[in-house]
Amino acid sequence: MENTRCFANRFSDYRGALLPGQGAEAVIPAVVSKIERILKKVPIDINDCDGGLYDGPAGVAYMLYHVSECPLFSEQREVYLKTAKQIIDVSVRYADAEPDKNMRAAFLLGGAGIYAVAAMIYKSLGLADFVKPLSKFRSLWEVCAPINFLECGSDELFVGRAGYLCAALVLKQKLGIEILSKDQIKYICQAIIESGKQYARRKRKPFPLMYSYYGTEYLGAAHGLSSVLQMLLSYQDMLSGAERDLVWQSVDFLMSQEQNCNWPAELGAIIERENELVHWCHGAPGTTTVNDAVSHYLLHIVVTLMVPSRPAGVAYLFAKAYLINKKPQYLDTCIRSGELVWQKGLLKKGPGICHGVAGSAYVFLLLYRLTGNSKYLYRAQRFAEFIFTEEFKAGSLSVTSIYSLFEGLSGTVCFLVDLLQPDQSEFPLFSVFV
Known about the structure:
This protein has 434 residues and is mainly α. It has helices spanning 24-41, 52-55, 57-69, 77-96, 101-104, 111-124, 131-139, 141-144, 161-175, 182-202, 225-234, 241-256, 292-306, 314-325, 328-344, 357-371, 374-387, 390-395, 409-420.
């Protein structure tokens, strides 16, 4: 019976040699060609800017910035950055006009992410104006500081506090300056921990921290426990000893939820082998006012849960845990996730990084950075190769926003560029190495 969710992986595994023909000579023209295709599709009208970094034009601006940062694209750098600025300027105006202050504080679906990317692009262009979007970003910490600032769930990655902390982490990495004060970071971290404690107590959980989003106890990277814990680990120096203990207990609890090298999309679900999937959003690879952007993404959640899918984003949490304390069980968990991704990661949901082939392949780049084992670089090359095959083009689902960062080709471009610089590769806007 044909698998409706992933293509069969017919590739032979690593035998001691990387693929020929996947160097800069081949990849650079492919990237340039995809960017030309994207720029023909991306809307630049202020009325088309919803979707934030996830699937709005702002995500294209980030992709252009990411490509321009790679030395192999020095010839295209200036034109890509100028185009990125044109796109992000419109998105900034859109974010400025957002009447719901909670949506302005959202990372992947709202203003916080747009302001962060604008600051990065302006700084890369050498513009002193980068302080303007940076100041707008910094002012948003007060919005997401109250424990229950979002009725639907205040702590997840897309619109909640974990996302705001994630954006601050990326900004610090890219700009090389402190973004938030220690007191601000501590305050937000304490709000996340207190929120998780209250929820776990209220729902009588046998572990210390838990969260829900629209009433569902997600475990994956998009809306769930793994990305919340990953952000708390990223700022663990700001936590008290007791708070750190709660976080590590929760990390170990999540590790105990592994089923067949994978994790259920939500707490308590059982993975049936034929339903295994390895999405970043809900799989092994990672507002009170619901506006158009959130409505659009809620549709994604509903579709994803109708077709049982699983948490690739969880691997990033255990990678972070391993980088901090070097305990081998965390690395072993990542490696097991990578084996499942190799078997079932050629997803039919398109080329994107959220629930597509590029998102699966980023797990191999993560494992390559963690281990230095060329097997993982080879596997990433094979997945890149597959994206260009007729089998993939004919058999994968069409994507509504073909230009988007998380579902469309902009994320694919980021992956192809990172394949050329695997020692610096990172899942877009989701660093574990800071």
